[in-house]
Design goal:
Strand content: 15-25%
Radius of gyration: 18 Å
Number of strands: 5
CATH class of the largest domain: Mainly Alpha
Subunit structure: Homodimer.
Protein name: Ferric uptake regulation protein
InterPro entries: FUR, Fur_C, WH-like_DNA-bd_sf, WH_DNA-bd_sf
GO biological process, one term: negative regulation of DNA-templated transcription
Family: Belongs to the Fur family.
Helix content: 40-55%
Distance between the termini: 53 Å
Length: 143
């Protein structure tokens, strides 16, 4: 982690190393600052919530993470080294699902080309209800 921080132009500190290590190891890849704060402190690190906010902002500016604002005004972070992808977001439970669709990528490229643009990045979030929440809602309606 020290080399990653140095290469990103960030000062290497114990807290930054631990935070970056946590983000890289956690299974969930759509993390809120609160998730990160709770997870890192559950591992025995004593890092304050304000420090996590500040470090995530530093990581974003250094290009290590990408910050995404969802419709619910919830901010999530993901590692920047993930391949380009889009999101399906459940409005009921908040689940965020990554997906890649070559046809969407093609249409975006064609649209950009048609208008004389090149795409550096894009954000596509689709909102709905996941099948689990639909099923639960249907079961509630039956009873």
């Amino acid at each position: 982690m020290q080399a990653v921080l140095k290469d990103s132009g960030l000062k290497v500190t114990h807290q930054r190393c631990k935070l970056l290590e946590f983000i890289n190891q956690v299974d969930e890849q759509h993390l809120t600052v609160e998730n990160i704060y709770q997870g890192i402190n559950a591992q025995g690190e004593n890092i304050g919530l304000t420090s996590v906010y500040r470090m995530m902002s530093d990581f974003e500016q250094a290009g290590l993470v990408t910050r995404r604002l969802l419709e619910s005004e919830k901010t999530i972070y993901e590692l920047s080294n993930k391949p380009r992808h889009d999101h399906l977001i459940c409005l009921t439970c908040g689940k965020v699902i990554d997906f890649v669709d070559p046809l969407i990528e093609l249409r975006l490229s064609l649209a950009a080309e048609h208008h004389g643009m090149s795409i550096h990045h894009h954000s596509l979030n689709m909102y709905g209800q996941c099948f689990e929440c639909q099923k639960a809602h249907l079961n509630e309606s039956i009873t």
